[in-house]
């Protein structure tokens, strides 16, 4: 059976006590023998009286020897005790310190990141300590293995993300809270023609050194931080476009703020696209449409002008048939003009149109519409029910265009003497308008196509009415620019209702949010450079 | 009828020139040029009461003609009206900002055209 350390210590103490008793016994024994020797000496002195003086001297010598013998014994006993204690100390070192030393060395190795195993030499407390130590080391080893495994996965994932960001066709710039660049991928290098290592760590505005328009990469333009609400982001700007003058590039950027777990601003991520070619194509398209419009208007000026002069009999008298013929020329010229104008309109709306938003009484948009005159000519009444409507934030001219298009359509497909109703009701933060007619209606199959460009129903009754097939596309574009929605309901033969919504308050940013891929946005550099063309 | 007021027409489209002649010819003295360069020369020599100026013309466009004439002390008092098929908002505003008093878009109604010319030329 193994002895515990406590027992070992007790045994040690008992051994020491035994040793001490034994040595004390030895000492006593020696002391006793010397006393006996002294008595024998006195007898010797009594029998030899002749040499009394010598005897006295001898006695002195004997006493001196006796004293010397006592001191020797004491030294021997002391040495014995010291040797015993040294032996006990060594035993103690063997028993207690050595296993502790092993554990200390082991922990030092653990601290260095190693996982040593200590040999167990006993089953006492030290043995158990060694066992616990070894178990602890095993656990640490296992933990580190798992940590390494997790780290490996994380590193792999990180590498994967970095690879994805690096290989993205879009430029990616990530900035920290101080607007310093922490990520600048390959595509960003190509866009800005700046090496990654030169960009990293720099303040985003330092890109200005490379000729980038500072307004559009100004961090303040990314989002507004409301300090009153604990530094939370209050407003976000998402889509911007800017020019890199010296590279003759136009860049589109989508910027999102990064927030921490408390929703506080902690940086931003900016995705960039080189849209130079797209913009050039757009410009060419715009130029082309402008040129076509100009080239078509010039001959139309002559056609319309001469027809009018004929009709006014400035070039001589005309008969009834001639007058009718001239009227047809005039009407068809007007129709052609309308198509040219609508083409121009849709082109401008698609290209990017900046709305002129102002608070407006919606009734004015209807009252100002030339469509009312058209309705009047066909003896069609336009009834509007817009009671208690607040002023809303819209582009008055564009919404007038919307009503003009919708009323003209309704008039076109309604019988003479019928009526058109325009109603409005407030729905949360929007107003819903309905333009209702009792005209010929639209077949179900055609309903989802009516907002497509140049779409005209196959029905001969509808074809007969003419039109460019652009009116409803323009209406839809204008409504969408206002962040509104539009839909159509119709029953063939019974009439049509076109419903659209307009928000009471116009939200600039919503355009940016909703039309991420759209060219319409509030910070459209290119479009801001141009005048409104509609 | 004695024609006391002179109008310089700078227009390269012959049909439109003839149309203008038909509308205004019996009321005003009309002088026609077909490009911008000629328009500037004749404006300096003729000192017309009004110039009807097309925008898209050979050599020098209408906007440049207008700017040149308005910078020149000898011609800056001459009234200018643009008559153009360039109908974009920015074209109109460019025309008016460089000194023209009106911008008539093509195509036009002859009667309305005549009224606008009359009111412009009679403007003191």
Oligomer: heterodimer
How large a portion of the residues of chain A is in β-strands, by DSSP E?
Answer: 15-25%
Residue runs with pLDDT of under 50 for 5 or more positions of chain A: 39-48, 223-230, 511-534
The overall pLDDT of chain A, averaged over residues, is 77
Q: What's the CATH superfamily of chain B, by name?
A: Response regulator
Structure classification of chain B: alpha/beta
Number of domains of chain A: 4
- In this structure, how is the largest beta sheet of chain B organized? 5 strands, parallel
Helix fraction of chain A? 40-55%
Number of strands of chain A: 14
Q: How big is the Rg of chain A?
A: 53 Å
Number of helices of chain A: 15
- Provide the succession of SSEs of chain A: HHHEEHHEEEEEHHEHHEEHEEHHHEEHH
The termini of chain B sit apart by: 22 Å
**Strand coverage percent of chain B:** 15-25%
In DSSP terms (H or I, runs of 4 or more residues), the helix count of chain B works out at 5
Largest interface: A-B, 27 and 20 residues
Give the strand tally of chain B.
5
| Mean pLDDT figure of chain B | 92
**H-E string of chain B:** EHEHEHEHEH
N-end to C-end Cα span of chain A:
106 Å
Q: Can you tell me about this structure?
A:
- The complex is a heterodimer of chains A (534) and B (124).
- Chain A has 534 residues and is of the alpha+beta class.
- Chain A has helices at residues 5-47, 52-111, 125-167, 186-192, 196-199, 276-311, 320-351, 362-367, 371-377, 396-412, 444-447, 460-463, 471-481, 508-514, 525-529, and strands at residues 171-176, 181-184, 223-226, 232-236, 239-244, 249-259, 265-274, 357-360, 381-385, 392-395, 419-427, 430-437, 486-491, 495-503.
- Chain A has four domains: 1-157, no CATH class; 168-274, PAS domain (Beta-Lactamase, 2-Layer Sandwich), CATH 3.30.450; 279-353, Orthogonal Bundle (Helix Hairpins), CATH 1.10.287.130; 356-505, Heat Shock Protein 90, CATH 3.30.565.
- Helices cover 54% and strands 17% of the residues of chain A.
- Chain A has a five-stranded antiparallel β-sheet.
- In chain A, helix 6 (276-311) packs antiparallel against helix 7 and helix 9 packs parallel to helix 10 (396-412).
- Chain A is rod-shaped and about 195 Å long.
- Chain B has one domain: Response regulator (Rossmann fold, 3-Layer(aba) Sandwich).
- In chain B, strand 3, helix 3 (62-71) and strand 4 form a beta-alpha-beta unit.
- Chain B has a five-stranded parallel β-sheet with strand order 2-1-3-4-5, sandwiched between helices.
- At the A-B interface, helix 6 and helix 7 of A face helix 1 and helix 4 of B.
